[in-house]
Records
---
Amino acid sequence: MNQPETVNPEVLNSTEEPPLISSPVPSAVLKTPLEGLESIPQIPKRVIIVGAGVAGLVTAFELLRQGHDPLILEAQHRVGGRIYTLRSFAPGLYAEAGAMRIPRVHDLTLEYCRLFGLELRPFVMGNPKSLLHLEGQRLTMGEADSEPERLPFELAEHERGRTYTELWDEATREVRELYQRIGEAALQQVIADYDKYSIREFLKMRGFSEGAIELYGIMSFREANLNAAVIEQLREIIGRAFDDMQEVVGGMDRLTDAFYHRLKRHVRLGARVIAFEQGEDGVTVHYATKAGRFSETGDYAVCTLPFSVLGDVDATPEWSHGKRKAIRELNYNASTKILFQTRTRFWEVQDGIIGGTTATDLPIRRLVYPSHSDPEESRGTLLASYTWGQDALRWEAMDPETRIEEALQQVAKIHPEVLEEFEVGTSHAWYEDHYARGAFALFEPGQETLLQDDIQRPEGRVYFAGEHCSLWHAWIQGSLEAPRSAGGCRHEGERPVPALPRGRRRRVHLRHPR
Ligand SMILES: Cc1cc2nc3c(=O)[nH]c(=O)nc-3n(C[C@H](O)[C@H](O)[C@H](O)COP(=O)(O)OP(=O)(O)OC[C@H]3O[C@@H](n4cnc5c(N)ncnc54)[C@H](O)[C@@H]3O)c2cc1C
């Protein structure tokens, strides 16, 4: 396999002062939660937004603040989409089926949390007391870090005695240094250099032995995704996506609920969108409820449906060839979470583990412990298994009861106390979720170059937004960029006119933007 072109040495060797690491979103976008979208005198528009995940909610929220008239059509009877806090536990207990943590650098996400007064606290990632269970052996993460030679992998001479993070940091040093020097522009260069490579190919190019690739796959939880595009991961490293994580106290759904409470009148629940129909002057969105078929017409529409779902929705006229290809081909990763409620938090009592992750070579792959210990509550919820890729699909193939039974037996190999302490369990497999049909977009090698323009491009009066349209796949931050992605529906193709005062809005038909 060819080595990718290396980064421009002139850039790396530049003597100029390295810029500060910039935030992953431009400052104009970052101001949105506090200041709203820029105020432009214009005729208020009726915008039909499809999907009440965080992308749809933030779009409606910002359009409303700008004086427009948004309406969200959401198929389910709840808002939030892949932000999904499960509360089917003892009173007060909850667990996250979807998003659970926010990196400190995800400033846009944190700004909206601040705007709504949500309380945040640290989400523990690394914990030396959490465990590693490989080939039946149980070590603490602290032991694995200080004595890496105890791990059962056949490493090459130059890899022995080194931890997987040391190996990975060395493999990605060049990319990180480039970012330190040239900031966001590094992303373009990284894409150009590495878009066509999978994680496995990248590691091989960096001289990893098969044993080191296996070590990396197990410890980073990416063993089932080694064939995914490496740029997804390089971007996360550049964006420091796993540094200093936060969680929302009370559950991640507090964020989407906060949007909803400000938008109630503009949300139609139980409305499954089945077709878009565009004309010269507007777009009609057809939807089905238990009571029949209905439609809503707007000046524009913003579609936040994952492409895994959008394929089933009709469009008249048909989406462009490029959009149809992107809808068909964009790769979606699988993820399954299995969650237990236990009578006591035995992991805290027996092993002193508060927060962090246990890694295993068992089908459950990893356990995630709650980051906070509540002295008033003896029970706890444990993320007994969090899987991606084909690991997740294997759990999905089981019925929900079997998932719990199997996961219990596997967790018991690490924490035998679980058999005594288990009370109830639940699970969520995102590929079988009818309204997600996948956990998150995850490029295959080459897909960013091939598909990204078509993924984002508006089709006439329909704009596209959401996690899959941003390059921050699998993060709330990407979805929160939605009002900007849908920017054209706010000011394209019109003569500016003074905004109408509230209560005097009228429906207007604007010239087609193209
Ligand atoms: C397992 C998992 C773990 C994650 N962990 C994190 C994390 O720790 N931190 C983080 O920042 N992000 C995380 N994410 C990613 C984050 O949850 C998503 O990026 C984000 O919630 C996606 O929001 P969205 O609005 O773009 O899409 P969605 O939330 O999918 O919203 C789409 C909406 O459209 C609705 N819909 C579907 N079909 C129709 C239809 N026909 N008609 C009308 N409505 C329809 C759906 O019901 C849904 O409400 C995780 C995701 C998963 C699945």
---
Amino acid sequence: MTRYSAFAVAREALSYHTGWGRAWRAPEPKKRYDVIIVGAGGHGLATAYYLGRNFGITNVAILEKGWLGGGNTGRNTTIIRSNYLQDSSSAIFEKARSLYEGLSQDLNYNVMFSPRGCLMLAQTQHEVRGYQRTAHANALQGVETEWIGPERVKELVPIINIDGPRYPVLGALWQARAGTARHDAVAWGYARACSDMGMDIIQNCEVTGIRRDGGKVVGVSTTRGEIDCDKLGLVVAGHSGVLARMAGFRLPIESVALQALVSEPVKPCIDVVVMANTVHGYMSQSDKGELVIGGGTDAFNNYSQRGSFHHIEHTMAALIETFPIISRLKMLRQWGGIVDMTGDRSPILSKTPVENIFINCGWGTGGFKAIPGSGWAFAELMAKGQSPLAEEFSLDRFTEGRFIDESVAAGVAH
Ligand SMILES: Cc1cc2nc3c(=O)[nH]c(=O)nc-3n(C[C@H](O)[C@H](O)[C@H](O)COP(=O)(O)OP(=O)(O)OC[C@H]3O[C@@H](n4cnc5c(N)ncnc54)[C@H](O)[C@@H]3O)c2cc1C
């Protein structure tokens, strides 16, 4: 693999950039792998990467039914933060956030991590209490966040309307080291690094069945033939229930469409991420100048990866109340992704009832920010059978009543 650097760019400029190699190989599937990961989204690719980097396991295939990064990883609004309430959540999200800080160097791929800061607005007394509580919890967890008043919010975001007609801004939970990254680049960077370690990323390869010998996995059936493996990792977000059914167990997961949209590009007008959960909308500005706007989930379970008009209307109404300046902006695109929601709004990283099948799902509306931490922990779980970061997120918690309630931090917002 050619190392990307300023020298490489200069060298290639002399030959009209004809010398760049492919970022990842497109191999034919082998008959057998030590580990198969199903799903080449961010979490699947990061898992494979840390299996190789941290544990030297490289006889790995990542099977993807479409194109890599084409699921939720390529559809999200890229918010990265770690201001969660429960200790186990902030541990894994903070691990992820801190890995994001050095990810471009680690992968030798610019993931455009931008720690621009994130504000979660409090617009009711209930939210004030909730976010103040989170700020105290974060202080104990060693996660840097701060409760700030409305005047400071206005300083940070001059275009905001803090005296909204229905819900004035009463303050905010501010995480200065939160931010955004380029979602495609995160998938592409991990993919390139996995391919460089000799792993096979096999696109257009849908897993259609899971083969067992008694209680143990032996391989998968795919649209490109049967492939054997010792260990199988299911990392398919909204399709987790479908894959679990193939393996013969059920998951406490519901799949729903979550939507987002972007405006036409405008000059820089907002340099932080703002989330307004009461009116329900959130916004940041991309490097191209588009306002990246997050909407809500559909109120019914479905697998349709698309947006709908009533969501645009509700989301825009909420945001125009908070940012009247954007009222005449044209919206360019909208889309949807299928998110995997658990009842306690926390993920599942776990062994399963089938020996050597592991599952990583339930990241719901907020898993982009977790990709490096989730990959790190899940690789450890698959390699060693346990991981301190993943321990609390096992499937047992649903039968033991040990929920990790993150409905305030993760219920709707990202
Ligand atoms: C509109 C929207 C906005 C969001 N905003 C944010 C945000 O701002 N911040 C944040 O942290 N999170 C956000 N999220 C959530 C985040 O995108 C997801 O939690 C995260 O990307 C999940 O990554 P993944 O790798 O688990 O899943 P995915 O990226 O969906 O990857 C799973 C892959 O599995 C593949 N697959 C499925 N079935 C099979 C099969 N049978 N065989 C082979 N492959 C299969 C799919 O094709 C897919 O590529 C948002 C999500 C959406 C939809």
